[in-house]
């Protein structure tokens, strides 16, 4: 039986569905390529002045729930003369068939070839998606190198957190956008619309120049990189007089004016998150020194409690989801989180709707919040992230949480009905010793003991999850040396032994970890410069795909590619990863302005070595990180003093009952 396409394309010649459909029975999870989800949009091709193909460079099951892509998809499609469709990375089984049968990279909405669009926008939340970008560009029939593209090819634009250092993929990009995308994509659309309406004067180069002149779109071809004899960067400078020396990030200030997604995509196939997600605030000023997301998204901007309530009501009614995720980098820090959770819990009491928070700060979780999150009897998973095993290392990383705070918080969860919590830590942090890591086991043991004592039950579990530390650009740790994989793996082995040293407690503790090898490669990609692009290309040519998936990642492939390519530049893999940088070194991203003052970041790096803890500037005087004055922004926090009332009655399935 054949599978019907998502929607008939306006022109049969514009759709690859007739070529694609016969291939789908031969691949795993063919439903992920069909499209037609609730919330999907298919617009008339001919009536659109500007056409975007949006990609999250991973499989459908990871990419579809991505909040950033969903927001931009909706923002763009609300414009009457703009068309936006989605594409995701295809699994290797379909890639092979597409190459054999001449099927290009396609969108899932109307199965149109990506190469036919004006803009190909790719959102990166992790650098390990870079090889998937190359696959998509190549399958689309677009030249891999930006320098080889002509007027007929789409402009390839990167965004997302990893775009704050796009230098490793600069050769493959036409442009990159730093920061928030809502207003940025509309500005880019206006520039493309005007350029096309004028008859595309000056060709591709003129379009890219117009984008660069905004000072918030980075066009790598207009910048040259000079190197010192020892391999360090001497300078990054514009190669023409009409582009800026520095490119600035975009900051969307009034989140209430951007209540997206209004019509969330409801997946046809299983995905990693199936919920209606509302971003309740953006930015974080907690100052965790390892956290790129917290640093680059400053300042804090809260969405009002009333807008959150309206979004939840409309999003659930449209989608039928039974879980609401209240998302941010530290959701329990919202100034009205208590009223928000109690109001939503009250509104959906007696229904199948549950509330969830992402990873929660230990010192922001309390019994009132626990009760509201479990009001309807459904308890979604709780994850707490102490990050460091010892009090000393938590001071180094500025994660101001004591062991007593953690025990008290987890016991609160256990006594409110949770039987399973997850604790997240990192291994390989600056100044870390074996003893710092072994304290993770002691903490886990005490969590189980305290939970059993508080509940009188032995049915208490916790999972210890360990990730490898990766220094990121625009953080105080951007200068740090990485620990070698064998050091990480040695400490993880010691930790496992220590957890199991008490069998009674060890049986109640799950243990999950990522070994040191993928982290080292992520470190190469996160702090690399343009010379790393040749490594990425070599890995891709040798079969690298889906490097964020352990079953597809090959450490040996990356090490071999680096050994083959980097010596020609006088550097190697260790030079990019395990080497500490000094204060005066020009970093590959110094010309890309996140708003953070580099001198402030350096001082915070020095403060970390002396284990000095930095306060949260939301509640204390400004400590001059630089964001607010340089970006002409300010912290936006409540409380508004409003409530979610009046409550709208809902039926048992969580949908509003018509009056």
TrEMBL record:
Residues 270-512 form the Radical SAM core domain. InterPro entries: CHP03960_rSAM, Elp3/MiaA/NifB-like_rSAM, Radical_SAM_N2, rSAM, rSAM_horseshoe, rSAM_sf. Gene3D superfamilies: Cobalamin-binding domain, tm_1862 like domain. Pfam families: Radical_SAM, Radical_SAM_N2. PANTHER family: RADICAL SAM DOMAIN PROTEIN, SLL1084 PROTEIN. NCBIfam families: rSAM_fuse_unch. This is TIGR03960 family B12-binding radical SAM protein.
